[in-house]
């Protein structure tokens, strides 16, 4: 069977030698659905920043490109409003002094692009509709040099402009510079992605790096250089804080995707935040909102450009209120109109809702009030201006609940209801249950179908009111454990088919003490962004509103880590090879196994020929792991990592580090590290709040305690608790490391120490750990090889590579161990990966050929 697979491999290599690698990449991306296009892009800091902090990108760096006949420079462009004036790119020619540039001026009514021969004349002027381009977020930009016909064309979105008779050379050696270059320092705020340059053969750059100043082409080869970059792929994982507002009276919030505006309003005024421009306007109403706000509930009719404020019910001491309960705000004139004075029978806290623009109905579902959970659908008719309970549903039983997430899917005229809390009777006194189920309600037939219910092993969470459904495969919503005062919102993507889910992006803090506190999720298809709006109440009256954005499609932590890894020019070949090998192996196994069963002897031979190279790791309850991804498991083995905010994780690691090495950290030293610029009184308060929060989170585990003794904070552990860092320190401090070698291998096989923790605060911790660990790994790697424990040698070499990617000894012992195990293909691939990394870092070829390692 291995011979057949090897033949498949040789055929594949032959293919690669005759077909450009990027064709395979394009083929792979061609199968991706439109809304799943890879995130990324390079954002340029413009004249809003000091000159030395503006972005400059040399596409070819020290490399030389040559084109004959014609060549195109094509990319997607996004414009930002902070600086709307300056040069986007310059095009030089190594063989002449002629320079062309593209100048942008967005200060007037239209967006104007000028293509110039620098220092001589303007060649092309393109005036574009401002709203059309800005609302697209990304639009196509293409500059074509027709060398044979001496013409230049500029294409912006769907319009093409040209210049003839420009006396162009037959062959061009372009130097292409985006942003700041030479004496050109006027740079607008913009971003580019999906850059391609060439004719029949193209240089292609996805611009999806997550860090660093080296730019790689889609094959993984280092080509260009950039200074002061902002890599936009990070915005698909890290929620970006945008703005915040305060109101001393009850307020509501919503998003208008037509106008790209977030509204935050109370009875007197309206804050308007434009997510595209970042500008905020305040409108003071000539007449107050007719509805007396209690919860601030509202919805938007984008079709008629109106915002509706409503209150379902006025409970004591407001029960004598008889004024309007629904009013509409004209978002052109900012005039309020009373619509209805009808009240429902309950306040229905945390109900779900959806608006159907085609029928002009706004419907709420569920909610809590008067000691009851609701299961009713109650609809407000914008034309009739009245509420009515929707009857006549058939199908599965949908239990009473609140805190549910509701979404409307226009393509099937259906709504989906996910999760929440409640019980089958609706009586609060019975007790509440957390639901992790999904229902589909066909609005044409009013039939309810329960699609799934999934087991939940994490801490209980509730979703926010809003749900984003883009197609019939999945939905997105934010979830958080509302039973904690200081909680965290996380973005979940659930399959509509079976409930399988992924957690995407990092977390958003939310202070959830008050029942009126709420959050919502919105998606803008034009801007390709998600927006989270978090409204926190202090006393059920005054509130703060915070706005966050996340690029779409969002990434998991693992996906972001993949973007962060150094590019390997062979990585696409490896990916495609893996796919083909998997297919080939499956086919061969099927053909061989179908006629007859393999004997035990054959199975034994195969298991020796292709041994697994990955060390199995176990995850214990009551444990904290610092190797690989930071992970915390409580006493019931539930993952509670999400409870550790960035600051909690920092303070925990600091105290743990000093507890191990110095018996604890002084209170003053801790404050100086974490809050260096705060006044003493505020530091004391911040430290107290953070320490109390950490103690509360650690109370979810047994055998670990944060104590304060004689001015020092320290972590104390007992045998009930497990920490891989503490255990690793114990092992490498003994004189009998060989006895615990397998346990040490399992610890380090989880990954690099504090793998995804890049904050400078961790640097000394990581450096000290690696300084102690590296000599131990080297020694044990040699001993394991001498003892013919080759799997252990490979695992230890992997761990050494995490510390020092260019460690010669790790490469040598790993390849030798693989050769002893007949893993020759893996050995060659490991060597190839190493020499690519070596040349990238050292600038020269690795001096030892593969044959010398035996």
From TrEMBL:
GO terms classed as biological process: regulation of DNA-templated transcription
Protein's name according to its UniProt entry: Two-component response regulator, SAPR family, consists of REC, wHTH and BTAD domains
Alphabetical list of InterPro entries matching this protein: AfsR-DnrI-RedD_regulator (IPR051677), Kelch-typ_b-propeller (IPR015915)
One family name in Pfam for this protein: Kelch_KLHDC2_KLHL20_DRC7
Molecular function per GO: DNA binding
């Amino acid at each position: 069977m291995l011979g057949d697979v090897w033949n498949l491999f040789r055929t594949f290599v032959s293919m690669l030698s005759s077909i450009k690698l990027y064709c395979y990449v394009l083929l792979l991306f061609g199968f991706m659905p439109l809304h799943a296009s890879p995130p990324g892009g390079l954002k340029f800091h413009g004249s809003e920043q000091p000159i030395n902090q503006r972005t400059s990108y040399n596409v070819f760096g020290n490399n030389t490109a040559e084109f004959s006949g014609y060549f195109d420079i094509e990319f997607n462009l996004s414009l930002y409003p902070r600086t709307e004036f300056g040069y986007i790119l310059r095009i030089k020619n190594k063989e002449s002094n002629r320079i062309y540039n593209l100048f942008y001026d967005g200060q007037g009514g239209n967006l104007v692009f000028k293509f110039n021969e620098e220092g001589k004349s303007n060649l092309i002027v393109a005036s574009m509709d401002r709203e059309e381009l800005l609302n697209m977020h990304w639009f196509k930009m293409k500059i074509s040099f027709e060398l044979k016909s001496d013409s230049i064309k500029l294409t912006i979105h769907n319009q093409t402009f040209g210049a003839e008779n420009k006396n162009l050379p037959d062959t061009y050696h372009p130097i292409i510079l985006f942003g700041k270059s030479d004496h050109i320092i006027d740079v607008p705020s913009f971003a580019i992605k999906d850059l391609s340059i060439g004719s029949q053969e193209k240089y292609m750059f996805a611009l999806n790096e997550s860090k660093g100043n080296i730019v790689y082409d889609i094959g993984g080869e280092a080509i260009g250089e950039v200074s002061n970059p902002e890599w936009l792929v990070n915005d698909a994982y890290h929620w970006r804080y945008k703005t915040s507002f305060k109101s001393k009276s009850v307020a509501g919030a919503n998003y208008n995707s037509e106008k790209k505006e977030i509204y935050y309003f109370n009875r007197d005024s309206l804050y308007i935040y434009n997510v595209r421009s970042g500008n905020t306007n305040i409108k003071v109403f000539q007449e107050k909102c007719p509805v007396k706000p209690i919860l601030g509930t509202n919805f938007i009719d984008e079709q008629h450009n109106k915002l509706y404020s409503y209150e379902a019910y006025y409970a004591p001491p407001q029960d004598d209120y008889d004024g309007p309960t629904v009013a509409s705000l004209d978002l052109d004139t900012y005039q309020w109109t009373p619509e209805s004075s009808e009240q429902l029978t309950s306040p229905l806290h945390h109900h779900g809702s959806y608006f159907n623009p085609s029928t002009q109905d706004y419907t709420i579902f569920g909610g809590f009030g008067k000691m009851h959970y609701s299961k009713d659908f109650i609809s407000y008719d914008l034309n009739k201006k009245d509420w009515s309970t929707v009857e006549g549903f058939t199908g599965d039983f949908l239990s009473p609940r609140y805190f549910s997430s509701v979404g409307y899917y226009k393509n099937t005229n259906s709504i989906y209801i996910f999760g929440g809390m409640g019980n089958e009777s609706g009586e609060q006194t019975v007790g509440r249950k957390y639901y992790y189920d999904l229902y589909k309600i066909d609005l044409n037939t009013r039939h309810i179908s329960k699609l799934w219910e999934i087991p939940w092993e994490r801490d209980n969470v509730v979703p926010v009111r809003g749900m984003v459904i883009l197609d019939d495969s999945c939905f997105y919503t934010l979830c958080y454990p509302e039973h904690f005062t200081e909680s965290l919102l996380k973005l979940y993507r659930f399959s509509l088919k079976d409930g399988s889910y992924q957690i995407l992006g990092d977390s958003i803090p939310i202070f959830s003490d008050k029942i009126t506190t709420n959050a919502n999720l919105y998606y803008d298809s034009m801007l390709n962004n998600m927006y989270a709006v978090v409204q926190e109440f202090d006393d059920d009256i005054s509130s703060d509103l915070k706005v966050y954005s996340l690029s779409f499609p969002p990434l998991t932590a693992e996906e972001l880590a993949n973007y962060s890894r150094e590019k390997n020019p062979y990585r696409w070949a490896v990916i495609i090879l893996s796919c083909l090998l998997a297919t080939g192996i499956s086919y061969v196994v099927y053909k061989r196994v179908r006629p007859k069963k393999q004997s035990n002897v054959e199975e034994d031979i195969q298991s020796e020929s292709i041994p697994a190279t990955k060390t199995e790791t176990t995850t214990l309850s009551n444990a904290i792991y610092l190797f690989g991804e930071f992970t915390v498991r409580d006493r019931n083995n539930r993952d509670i990592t999400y409870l550790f905010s960035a600051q909690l994780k920092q303070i925990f690691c600091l105290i743990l580090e000093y507890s191990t090495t110095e018996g604890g950290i002084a209170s003053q030293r801790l404050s100086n590290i974490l809050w260096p610029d705060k006044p003493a009184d505020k530091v004391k308060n911040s430290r107290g709040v953070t320490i109390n929060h950490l103690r509360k989170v650690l109370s979810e585990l047994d055998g670990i305690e944060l104590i304060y003794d004689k001015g020092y904070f320290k972590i104390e552990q007992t045998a009930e608790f497990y920490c891989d860092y503490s255990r690793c320190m114990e092992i490498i401090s003994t004189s009998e490391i060989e006895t615990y070698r397998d346990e040490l291998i399992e610890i380090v096989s989880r990954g690099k120490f504090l793998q995804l923790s890049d904050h400078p605060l961790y640097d000394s911790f990581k450096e000290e750990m690696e300084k102690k660990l590296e000599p131990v790994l080297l020694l044990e790697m040699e001993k394991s090889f001498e003892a013919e424990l080759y799997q252990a040698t490979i695992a230890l070499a992997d761990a050494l590579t995490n510390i020092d990617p260019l460690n010669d000894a790790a490469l040598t012992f790993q390849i030798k161990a693989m050769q002893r195990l007949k893993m020759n293909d893996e050995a060659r691939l490991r060597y190839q990966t190493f020499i690519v990394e070596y040349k990238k870092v050292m600038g020269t070829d690795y001096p030892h050929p593969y044959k010398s390692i035996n």
